[in-house]
Amino acid sequence: MNKETLIGKVVLKLEKEIAELEEGATSAHAASVDAPGAMQSHSDTSKFQNKVSEENLISMLDEKKNRCDAIKTMEIPSEISEIKIGACILAEDGENEKRYILLPGGAGIEVWDDETLDSYMTITPEVPIGKALMGKKEGTKTVFKVGSKEKKLLIKKVW
Question: How far from 144 is each of 38, 96, 127, 150, CA to CA, in Å?
Fold first, then answer.
């Protein structure tokens, strides 16, 4: 499976999450409007809580839409000699091979190559592993920290 197809799968997952957030925000808004106000009950806590929930969902929705737009509009590099946005990476942590796609947004989304059944995890340049991989080339090793643990990766392939 080619890189464009994998990135397309990431976009589809983000669009699904966006639709779910939109539905949640609509429901929270309706619940806020329908909740009894101060004149109808001793407390308008549920009205306030539903409004806060709606605002949080809208904020998450905006962030996810921005990430999705960044991925849709990014230039996908065809020839890569070093890791940059749009790169697919095969790395080994000493025990296991791991596959990553470095994207401007949408970190933590897992997509599968239907042909090889390989799993790819999306990462961004802002996360520790993304920072450690940026600019590296095939055959190099990199070290980064996750919490207090130090992780090592050997970059086996970049495309």
Answer: 53, 17, 10, 6
